[in-house]
Design a protein that fits this description.
4-stranded antiparallel sheet; 15 strands; 252 residues; alpha+beta; 26% strand; single chain; Creatine Amidinohydrolase; 5-stranded antiparallel sheet
Amino acid sequence: MMPTNTISIKSQEEIATLREVGKSLAKIVGDLKRSLKSGITTKAVEELAEQLMVQYNVIPAFKGYRGFPGSVCISINEEVVHGIPSQRVIQEGDIVSLDVGISSQGFFSDTALTVGIGRIDAKLQKLLSVTKRALYQGIAQARVNNHLTDISHAIQSFVEANHFSVVRDFVGHGIGRLLHEEPEVPNFGEPHQGPILKEGMVIAIEPMVNLGTWKTKIKEDGWTVVTADGLPSAHFEHTIAITKNGAEVLTV
């Protein structure tokens, strides 16, 4: 873990701007979620995302980031994260993860969710529910004077109590004037480790939870992360600010 003096502390004014950017992102993702239905291609979802970003006067954070070719990440079923929009058709029974980041007014915001298309298997419905609830278990630990891994441990404990597994190869992160800042925010680990959480820290917490093994691999496109056993995965994320009164979710 990096020492806390490398972690950016945001002012009240900066957090107010991050709140505005987060609200715009939440509206964009809400519209994208409503667009997800059987028969639509992931490329069409990306095109809608780009139109919405123009409408809200924001910039796609992912486009060209380290060479990523898309404006959003769209991952289906066994795809964990970093799915590239394409002509792939979303189908009834799929679970689809949307990971969307934007920049505006010099700040970044990042959020993700996973949606079931039509009627989905009961085990997949539980996977979605547990992953979303795990995110909020983590958020509840994002309090002044807690340790960073109190967040991590809360997520892992909740997920494993429900007999799923937490991805270890990809983690959450600090966010602000850069898309990825210190600290890394793992979704697993022992409690009471790492930096002490302070008022003004802003982080993106993002559990990625698998139906089977936690292990992953990267497809030949160099980006799309899939589960090693081919079983489905879910992903939920919010950008949050640590305040004296606890965590404030900025991407709502």
